[in-house]
């Protein structure tokens, strides 16, 4: 029996068809004929691997280059078996690490399978280490996500009584503010009334002709000698319907007696009597300007310096007591007139009690603003937590750490941004506005892809979109961005979030 085994092995080896894997040898059974694998033809077995392509499916020439689309199997013992195009057989290029593709002997192919195995094995060990590191980081992300979720739940549970308390504080602050502002408004109205009375009393010192012209100048905003509709509508106090929010052109035309423009004489005759009581208190600056111009007009011209100093005729100067008294009275009158031109300082009416009321109102507004801000911030925080609780953060909430975080990838032309749960964007490196490539749509392919859709529409094309291909890595990093199809972008993104627990690499495996 022991003597028979080598004989059977030799027979079996001699029956093996070159270029066919052990698992497919059964498709080439011993016998006098071979049937093409597609069943289309039967040929003598001697025509298998005879360097001539007989079968339409090219299955009769697995070990030669006769059939252009055939497949040659490299056993590559000690490494990974490989299938190559049969057209590469005996082409004087070593494709198989065991050299079996160059069996014709035209070139010497050393067996490099062991070296390639060792290199691949070392690479696999390194990949396994990286995967292990990534998986360890993934576990950290999962632990952090658990803590964040617990924190969110605790904040949410405590939120309702906290917000109720903040609302109570705001309501109380609002009440105090309203009371303080009501008193402030009352004081302002009193002071405004005092101020207006002084202005009206001052207006009464002018002739009717002068004060009407002063009012005309006040309304003539562009100083072109005529009043038009927009110059009336800019003065809300002239609105015949003050209860309305706007002063319309139609209402202004009513004030102007349906005229498109008013000159001074028209103004005096048509509308001055009707608006006089409304406008007098608004004329303080206009009266100041009028008095300034009158003052300048009455100012004597500066005398030119004479070429020779004239001698003063002492005899013509009246130094009598009566004359000096008259000159003094004239100067006093001038000083009184100048004093009357000084604008009224309404702070004179502002007592310490008034100032306390104003300060209290200001302080109450600050207290209210602070209370309102605190309430809004608390409500916003709770709203954010509730929104976060609805998001799909993947298995074990592992993607939770990517919420409201963005990553960038820079090329020579663009900066690509990836913001999970938000958007993808493309911005020129040299500045300028960004182009939205898509808004968050969700995960696909068992959480191995992120999808972003409905970006900015391409010129004569579809809306932009982006797919993010995720792979295991120790850090979150965008590896590349491409545009495989027009307006369709593909990001390659490494993240520990998708790392799985690595299988141990055996000491020897045929990869």
Q: How many runs of DSSP E, i.e. beta strands?
A: 14
Tell me the distance between the termini. Answer: 36 Å
| Element-level helix/strand string | HEEEEHHEHHEHHHHHEEEEEEEE
| Cα radius of gyration in angstroms | 49 Å
Question: Could you tell me the mean pLDDT?
Answer: 86
- Uncertain segments are 1-13, 309-321, 323-346
Instruction: Determine the structural class based on helices, strands and strand pairing.
Output: alpha+beta
Strand content: 5-15%
Largest sheet: 8 strands, mixed
Share in helix:
40-55%
The best one-word shape is elongated
Query: How do the strands of the widest beta sheet line up side by side?
Result: 7-8-9-10-11-12-14-13
Number of helices: 10
List descriptors:
10 helices, elongated, 511 residues, single chain, two-stranded antiparallel sheet, disordered N terminus, 8-stranded mixed beta sheet, Cation-dependent Mannose-6-phosphate Receptor, Chain A, alpha+beta
Protein topology:
Elements lengths: L3 H12 L17 E3 L6 E3 L26 E4 L7 E4 L27 H91 L4 H12 L7 E2 H5 L15 H7 L5 E2 L1 H7 L1 H8 L4 H15 L22 H21 L10 H39 L16 E4 L3 E6 L3 E6 L6 E10 L4 E6 L10 E8 L4 E9 L2 E8 L16
Helix pairs in contact: 2-10, 3-8
Describe this structure in words.
- With 511 residues, the protein is α+β, with helices and mostly antiparallel strands.
- Among the domains are: 4-112, no CATH class; 397-498, Cation-dependent Mannose-6-phosphate Receptor, Chain A (Distorted Sandwich), CATH 2.70.130.10.
- It has 10 helices and 14 strands.
- The strands form 4 sheets. An 8-stranded mixed β-sheet has the order 7-8-9-10-11-12-14-13. It has a two-stranded antiparallel sheet with strand order 1-2. A two-stranded antiparallel sheet has the order 3-4.
- The longest helix has 91 residues, at 113-203.
- The chain is elongated.
- It starts with a helix and ends in a 16-residue tail after the last strand.
- Residues 1-13, 309-321 and 323-346 have low confidence and may be disordered.
